[in-house]
Every structure is written in structure tokens, then in C-alpha cells.
Design goal:
Layout (H helix, E strand, L loop, with lengths): L2 H36 L19 E5 L3 E10 L8 E5 L7 H4 L2 E5 L3 E3 L5 E7 L5 H8 L19 H18 L6 E2 L2 E2 L1 E3 L3 H9 L6 H4 L47 E7 L3 E2 L2 E2 L6 E4 L15 E4 L2 E2 L2 E2 L5 E2 L3 E3 L6 H13 L25 H11 L3 H61 L7 H38 L2 H17 L4 H18 L4 H9 L4
Parallel strand pairs: 10-17
Antiparallel strand pairs: 1-2, 2-6, 3-4, 5-6, 6-18, 7-8, 9-18, 10-13, 11-12, 13-14, 15-16
Amino acid sequence: MSKTMKAIFKKQRVSILSAASTLKRSWVAGLLLAAVQSVSAAPWETKFFNPKPAEDDVVLPMPCEGSMVFRKIHVPLDKPLDDLKVMLGSDSGDLRYLEQSHPAFIAGSFTTDKPAPGRYYLMAKYELTELQYQSVMTETCPKPAMKLMSPQVSVSWFEAMQFSDKYNVWLRKNSLEALPKEDKVPGFVRLPTEVEWEFAARGGNAVSTTDFRATLYPMADGINKYVWFAGSQSANGKLQVAGLLQPNPLGLHDMLGNADEMMFESFRLNKLDRFHGQAGGYIVRGGNFTTPEADMRTSWRQEQTYYRGAEPNRLKTSGLRLALVAPSLTSLDRGKIIEASWEKLGASSEAPAGAAQAPGAAAQAPAPTTVERLGSLLSGLKDDSLKKELEALRTELRASNQMRDEQRSLAIRSALQQGAFACSLLKREADFYEPVAKIYDRDCSKTAGLDESAQARCTKLKSANDDRKRALDLVVNIYSDGIIQAGTIYTAAMITPEVNVEKQQLEARKSNLHLYLSTYWTHLSGYLRTRQVSQSDWIAGCRAVPN
């Protein structure tokens, strides 16, 4: 590990030790508060913290025998430095300086092996309610009641931060085991970042790329069933009880409308493909009960000032929703892994995938890459000026290579998705063709002795049979071409990690397309090994996928 990395962790240890006494005092205060609260507290009924229970809900305890529910937001990448490129914002509307579409990157805090290796963070299922806010911020436990189930509004950004701090301290003192852990380090709650919030609001991996980029997440039953907005057909100018409407595809309620939600970071204007350099006030997202239906969108974002006059800014339309995340540098060992991963960024071979060795050929050591050769030159240089110049060039080249690698990953995932879809089409066309062909063979294989009516019927059957055969042949050729092209452009080492990513994304969308992906990958990996085209086997494999 580098001296710089060791210094970082040494500094972190000092900071932790210096904060220990302060934290200890906070815990003592928390114990006293808990003692006062426990006098009258009774466990909350489910309806007061989770009015719409769902599978895979994650429940954390709260003071006063309360609870808060979270949902896992999966990101299908499992390495600490892996992140998923997504497009956020909007390409339409008049507020492009606020919401212009732009690339962003998302990664999960916690590692998971189920259903496949990946990572996730958590987002509160509901907006923070008055009941939950009072359970943390008041000395006397509130009595659970429906009137306290509305989102907590009229709090400043600073009070939102204070709430999350107090809740974190209480969790660590009273229910540390309930917190998910990464590298044995417990997570913590905070306000979400813009990227965390918008990725979850759009539906994350649970929706298609097209639906992810839509103005609203999919609403099968119409917007009134999912969003509280202005007007007599919806909120009618009033804040509504949390969890009454249907959730978004990730199981999150009221991501749009009701109360708009405060973000963790400061507001920045949009400057085409990046954010402007000035950091302003705080951000609110999602719209609220006064927002017109026509203005509801997942890209909706506004700036709010931290203060109004001499007081912190408190709005009757603004509330909050917590995210549950983990530190990035959890330990010295994790730091070593990240450092090693960082050194490999953009250092991969520039050799084209088509240069892969033929099956059975003797293994050859890969030639040094340009990045590696530059590194070797740098190690022997004594001219500091030239060394700095070459190091800058090496960093620039690594960044360019990293962009190339990310673009290649996206292209491979697209090819995998297309292959899975082609496999499903192949199954459909083969299933359509087979019964028509059987009827024709049964009734029309021998035309001698058939009357005029039977001959006319056989003519129609032949036409239908020929049409179905042409359709099947076309899909088989498209499927075969996809396998051959992918096997020519990419190697198994390039494709394998992307299969896991694409499989998780397809599984999250609740379709069986991931089954076709598994079959497609079986066929493609077989072709990569043997370079043999096996159309009959490929047809049989796709037909064997269950409906």
C-alpha cells in the first residue's frame, strides 16, 4: 500500500478517536432519551410504518418501538470500483438549464451474492412521516395515529441532517446488528444524493432502458393511482397520508408528488453535459402536492435557499426520505483492493478481440500495453520535468482507455440483450412453424386422389407453410449472425462479466428474457470454444426455454 493511502487511514483513525468522546456523550444522551421514551412506548402496528407491506422489505427499528422500511436498489456490478453509467435528466421542456440530460454513474454500497454477484444501496420505502420524526426528535414518545402518517414537512435542511444524525446514533447504540454491513462495517442513513434518488425514482434496473428514460416511470393504471399532484382530481391542495397510492417499479411510494424531497448535496445548474461550477442552495426533487400534473416528471428539480431572513428555510411542501449506504474505504484491506483496481484502470490491452488465439493453440504471453510501456519508461527517468509530462500523458491515455472499456461494456450488454430477444423470437417462429408443417405433411404429402376442394386447401397450407418457413429461416440467420459477429469481435473474457450484469437487469424486470439470455450465452460460449456453427442445436436450445 502506498504511503499516501497509509496516511489517509492514519488520519481517519485519529479522527475517529477524536470523535469518540463526542459520540460517547451523544450515546449517553441517547440512553437517557430512550429511558424517558420507553416509559410509555408500545410497539407500532404495521399500518403505522408499512401500510403496503411487500416482499423483500427491509425493516429497521426506531425509538419508541417504531420502525422504518427500506427497499434494496440493486446495481448489477460487484467490484468496489465498478459503477453503472446511466442517463439522467430530460431532453425536453423549457428548463434545460435545470434538467438537461447528462451522463451519471451509480454504484451500490453493499455486496450481495443473490440472485447473482452485485451491489445495492437502500432507499426508504416511504417519505419520512411525522410519527417517525417525532420518535427521534422529541423526549416523549408520540402515540401512533393516522394523523401522524403524513410526510414530515416544514423542516429545514439542517433539521433533516440533525434527524439523520440522531437516528444514526440511536441505531448504533440500540440496534447495531440491524444495520447491513459492508466489509464488516455497519452502514448509515443520510439524505440521498441526486443520482441515488433519480436512479431509484425512474425504476432502476426494474424497467427497460426506454422506460428509464421516459418522463414518468411506467404507470399501468394511470398517474392518479401513483402520484399526488395539484387539482381536485388528486391532492386538491392538501398533503396526503404516506403510502396510500401504488408504488413505483422498485416498490417505493410517493417518489413523485405529495412532498418534494431534500437531497444531500448542494444545487448546481446544468451546463449541457455537466454541472456548473457554482454550488448554491439545497436541492428538492420529485414535485409536491401543489405541482400541476403536466409538470410531474422524474427529472423535476429545484433549488431552495438554506435561509429565509434570519431563520432556516422551512417549507410546507418539502420533506425527506432517507438512503442507507456504507463508507467506501471500509478498511486497510479494502483500501489495498481499491488501490490495485485503480492502478488497472485504463491499462488493459489495446489488441482487438479478433486477435484471440484459435482453439487448441499454445498460450502466448500478452505483449505489454502502451500504458505499461510508459510506466516502464517512467520508472527509469531522472528528468523530473519530462517525468511529469509523461505521467500526465499516461494518465490521459488511461482515461481514454477507460472510456473505451466502458463503451465496449455497453456494446456487449446490448449484443447480449439482442441475442436473448432473438432466441425468444426463434422459439416463437419455430413453435408457429411446426404445427403448420405437420398438418401439411399429414394431409398434403400425397396430392394424388385429392378432390378440388382438398387441393385448394393444400395450396393454402403450402403457402402458409412456406411463409412460416421463411420467417423461421430469417430469425435463425439473424440469431446465427449475432453469435458469429459477437464471437468475432469479443472474447469470452470480455463477455463473461457483462453476462452477469445483463442477467441481473433482465431478472429485475420480471420477465423470462433472462432465461433466453442464459441459452444465448451457452450457444455463444460454445461457438467461442469450437468456432462451429450449430443451427439445429441452437434452434433446439431456444425451443427448450420454458414459457
